[in-house]
Design goal:
This protein is an all-alpha fold and 71 residues long. The protein is built from four helices and no strands.
């Protein structure tokens, strides 16, 4: 239960912040990025990097960001 909660909070940060993955991992209580990547993949079926690319959101509107938003 605690692990799942930490991973879901990390997923939100990945989708809404530009933080580096290692920073998200450490702030989520993982000692290293390797353990974070493994746990994240087990929970979500994809790597943190791939999750971020697919779920990237504007933190203010929470709408998906697409290429037309980037100038």
């Amino acid at each position: 239960f605690v692990l799942r909660t930490r991973l879901r909070a990390a997923a939100v940060r990945l989708a809404t912040t530009p933080q580096r993955i290692i920073e998200v991992a450490l702030e989520s209580g993982f000692a290293d990025v390797s353990n974070f990547n493994r746990a994240f993949r087990n929970e979500f079926g994809t790597s943190p990097r791939a999750y971020r690319a697919r779920h990237r959101r504007d933190p203010i509107s929470m709408r998906p960001i697409d290429a037309s938003d980037v100038r």
